[in-house]
Design brief:
The chain is mainly β and about 180 residues long. The protein has a single domain, classed as Acid Proteases (Cathepsin D, subunit A, domain 1, Beta Barrel), CATH 2.40.70.10. The protein is about 5% helix and about 45% strand. It has one helix and 19 strands. The strands form five sheets. It has an eight-stranded mixed β-sheet with strand order 8-9-10-17-11-16-13-12, with no helix packed on it. Strands 6-5-18-19-7 form a five-stranded antiparallel β-sheet, with no helix packed on it.
């Protein structure tokens, strides 16, 4: 279903596709949750998100941070990261709580997986193999250190995984330049 004129504060978003879903599981986290807004819904606007503070701001000036180019895959923000010798394509995901990799990268091949619970906003709980991943490098001064990563096998995709927005203190999206300004 498409929705027109969705307002967030003083800003109106362009037409976006919405999915109707029961929010009971999300409301167990916070009763005031009315829906989940994905980063892809903001594709036409410059914005800054601060995941830890729960803030979204439109029309903000570019903050200090490391500049990383992005591109789009199926309307979602994608970026390339280095892990060991491999370059991975990761989708920036505002709903993911942990790194999710769709295949086991070579840099993690010698890391034994452990089984653990992996929860999603929708409340789905699965036992999935989880590894400590190798460091991810976006550009030389910007590195995301070792984090747990769920290995969720998905064949037939050009994407290597999901990178949670919560890894960063702030993310500024500059649509015209196709750049992210990331602060840890």
């Amino acid at each position: 279903m498409n929705l027109r004129n969705l307002r967030i504060g003083p800003s109106t978003l362009p037409d976006i596709e919405i999915v109707l879903q029961d929010m009971a599981e999300a409301q167990r986290v916070d009763r005031s949750i009315m829906g989940v807004l994905g980063v892809n819904a903001l594709s036409g606007a410059d914005f800054t998100i601060s995941p830890g503070a729960g803030r979204l701001a439109f029309g903000t000036e570019r903050p200090a941070g490391e500049v990383v180019p992005f591109y789009r895959i199926e309307g979602r923000i994608a970026l390339r990261v280095r892990m060991g010798e491999a370059t991975l394509t990761m989708i920036l995901d505002s709903g993911a709580s942990h790194v999710a990799l769709f295949r086991l990268p070579k840099a993690m091949a010698k890391t034994p997986p452990v089984s653990s619970n992996f929860a999603t906003m929708e409340g789905a709980r699965k036992i999935v193999p989880t590894c400590w991943k190798a460091d991810m490098f976006f550009i030389d001064p910007l590195r995301v250190g070792t984090l747990p990563a769920a290995i969720v096998q998905r064949s037939g995709t050009t994407v290597d995984g999901l990178l949670p927005a919560g890894v960063f203190k702030t993310i500024h999206v500059d649509q015209a330049r196709q750049e992210l300004v990331l602060a840890r």
